[in-house]
Amino acid sequence: MTEGSYGSPDALLEGRLRALAEADFAQLYVSYHPDAPFLQHFPAKQDYLNFAAQHLAEVSLVEWKLFAQRRCGTDTTEVLCWLRMDIGGESQELYELALLITSENGWSYHSAQKLTAEDYTGPVEKIDFRHFDNAEPKIRF
After folding, report:
1. For 43-99, what is the HEC assignment?
2. Contact by Cβ (8 Å): 30, 3
3. Which residues contact 22 (CB under 8 A, 6 or more apart)?
4. Cα(124)–Cα(141) distance, rounded to whole angstroms?
5. CA atoms within 13 Å, Cβ hemisphere of 77
6. What is the distance between the alpha carbons of residues 134 and 90, in angstroms, rounded to a whole number?
7. What is d(CA 82, CA 65) in angstroms, rounded to the nearest whole number?
8. Which DSSP state fits 126?
9. Shortest CA distance to 23 belongs to which of 65, 60, 64?
10. Domain range annotation of the chain
11. Phi, psi torsion values for 122, nearest 5 degrees
12. 14-40 per-position pLDDT tens digit
């Protein structure tokens, strides 16, 4: 699949999360929008694949859930999701507010704001956009 070939925000995130669960880092890479900050760090796919092989081998996505979407403009949507990962034998929960951009080619991943279980201590099903809106500092990557 090439960049931007996803037909909906949910399809994009489900595809990315499935790729992460399967350690398919090449698929993750091609899902990024050309203007994604991530690509400033890894402008060449092979550089990212080398990094992933060395540093992400102990990370596995165990479970995820997509919660809600909000339209931010004519070509952008934010999607709220929850992830449970195993990192070196330890379970970790993470909340993500993903910024997705659409073009004539479909949806692609721009960046995300993340909250840890320490940042949000409530029940998973109660996470809401306001938890991200009120978070400081707002770091997207």
Report:
1. CCHHHHHHHHHHHCCCEEEEEEEEEEEEECCCCEEEEEEEEEEEECCEEEEEEEEEE
2. yes
3. none
4. 22
5. 18
6. 28
7. 5
8. G
9. 60
10. 9-133
11. -80, 180
12. 999 999 999 999 999 999 999 999 999
70 has which bridge partners? Answer: 78
Q: Tell which CATH architecture fits domain 9-133.
A: Roll (3.10)
Structure tokens at 47: 């550089």
In tens, the pLDDT along 50-98 reads 999 999 989 999 999 999 999 998 999 999 999 999 998 999 999 999 9
Q: Is the peptide bond before 123 cis (omega within 30 degrees of 0)?
A: no
**Residue that has been written with the tokens 């910024």 in this structure:** 99
Identify the CA nearest to 58 among candidates 82, 85, 88: 88
